[in-house]
Amino acid sequence: MINSVVYVAVGLIVLTTVRIVFGCDFADKYVISNQRVTFHDAYVRCRQHGFDPVEILSEHDEKEIEAVLKNETNYGWQNAFWIFATNLGDKKNYYWLDSGKPLFYSKFAAGQPSNVEQENCLEIWKTSSEIFEWNDAPCDTKLRFICKYRQL
């Protein structure tokens, strides 16, 4: 796995610092933001910089994201990353915001999603036992986020 640090800038103003990580098969690049923003702001930032908001559609996708995040040392949902699925339009089911696909694969923590306190957006986080799990969180929570760039 190869890591690079990139400063995304317009003119002399740095918009955000991101880490680009090449996936195991080098077909995808993942951009890990160091900036904490709301779910919707994270989606817009991925798009503004020409990336796709990350969607985890399979166990293979999950393993790639876990490999990308394996060196993260901060644990708990407060140090999670947005993974761009929401149930805002349908309180019972989650859909990927970018593709509109329903969740066929998921890796929710025990008791999740709980749908309490308007928790309508999904995050992935690392537990203290080094396991990655999903959780639903309020969309206005400020978290880091993951974008994806598919190489041509």
From TrEMBL:
Tree of life domain: Eukaryota
One Pfam family named in its UniProt record: Lectin_C
Keywords on record: Disulfide bond
Keyword DNA damage (UniProt): no
Residue ranges occupied by any C-type lectin domain in the UniProt entry: 30-148
PROSITE patterns xref list: C_TYPE_LECTIN_1, C_TYPE_LECTIN_2
InterPro entries the record matches: C-type_lectin-like, C-type_lectin-like/link_sf, C-type_lectin/snaclec_domain, C-type_lectin_CS, CTDL_fold
Protein name as catalogued: C-type lectin domain-containing protein
Lineage start: Eukaryota, Metazoa, Ecdysozoa, Arthropoda, Hexapoda
